[in-house]
Amino acid sequence: MFVLAPRVHLLDLAGPAQVFGTATDQGHRYDLAYVADTPQVSSAQGLNLQATLDWPPLTRDDLVVVPGWRAPTLARSGRFGRPTLSRIAAHHAAGGMVASVCAGADALGRAGLLDGRRCTTHHDVQDELARRYPRAQVVRDVLYVEDGRVVTSAGIASGIDLALHLVAVRHGPATAARVARQMVVYARRNGEAQQASAMLRHRGHLSDAVHRVQDRIDAQFTETLTLADLAATAGVSERTVTRLFTAAIGQTPLRYQQLLRVERAEHLISQGATVEAAARAVGFSDARMLRRLRGRVTVVPDLRQ
User: Signal sequence: where (predicted)?
Assistant: First the structure.
């Protein structure tokens, strides 16, 4: 559900809404709703929007998003009534997640949700946000920050990154990558993270054939996939699929599959699995190959980003 303030930025709203709408088209249902303190909301770009005054019933599985608005200063803009701020706070208190784009972080601050948490906002108002909420830790120069079911993003287009992250958390990075591909955007994760999921890190290209092959590998990386299988998926020859794949992401299909296996194995090991159990879970016949690849495959850079 989106909570709209006067002079809302259209891209702050439309970017995340498009992500969730595209995820719905791919079988993950999101019922989008738009509420405000007035039935008509002016946008910063001059287009008037219709909203409802009545909040739908929410569960802890629902997400409340506050898009940003045109705000030379936070102190005199984006005014929400106390009932709206109380509903935002109550949703979080009930176990739900709240998110903001750009200046929308100020609404979360007014609702008391930034105290003791890491957060971010657009660079033009970062200093003011830090002054207004001294108990918050404002993180600069990142795309978004998640802390205790409160997710804040830097602004404008970073709302798309925030929404893709939330889709990845709920439905897996392969789904987020497919949504990003459908939207023809670069699928990124947290801007402060040194390592992003390989399923997202290697999607910054526009080769439809390679995306189809990646979709298959992402879905079946624990299985044995022959080059002939992948070539058939792309509708090209084995030599061509290798050439296209290497040109697009800088490594062969086999290398990419190994990267996904090792990345997943590292996660399982971090959760307490033995190397042997992790190796079997990701498709290796024994732990010897995993041991050889650990520390080598995981540091493969994506030179095209």
Answer: none
Q: How far apart are CA 151 and CA 124, in angstroms?
A: 19
Rounded (10°) CA dihedral 222, 180, 55, 88? 80
What single string gives the DSSP state of each residue in 36-87? ESSSEEEBTTS-EEE-BSSPPP--TT-EEEE--B--S-STTS----HHHHHH
Q: Domains of the chain (ranges plus CATH)?
A: 2-176 (3.40.50.880), 202-299 (1.10.10.60)
CA–CA distance, 225 with 237 (Å, rounded to integer): 15
Largest CA distance in the chain: 63
pLDDT, tens only, 78-130: 789 999 999 999 999 999 999 999 999 999 999 999 999 999 999 899 999 99
* Residue 119 known to be catalytic: no
Which listed residue (1, 97, 102, 199) is catalytic?
102
Give per-residue pLDDT as tens, 2-14.
Answer: 999 999 999 999 9
> In the Cβ-directed half-sphere of 11, how many Cα atoms lie within 13 Å?
10
Strand partners, 99: 65, 151
| CB-count exposure of residue 138 (10 Å: 0-12, 13-18, 19+) | buried
Phi, psi of 139 (to 5 degrees): -95, 125
How confident is the model over 169-200, as pLDDT tens digits?
Answer: 888 877 888 898 888 886 554 455 433 567 76
Average pLDDT over residues 35-43: 96
Is the dihedral angle over the CA atoms 160, 166, 171, 172 positive or is it negative? positive
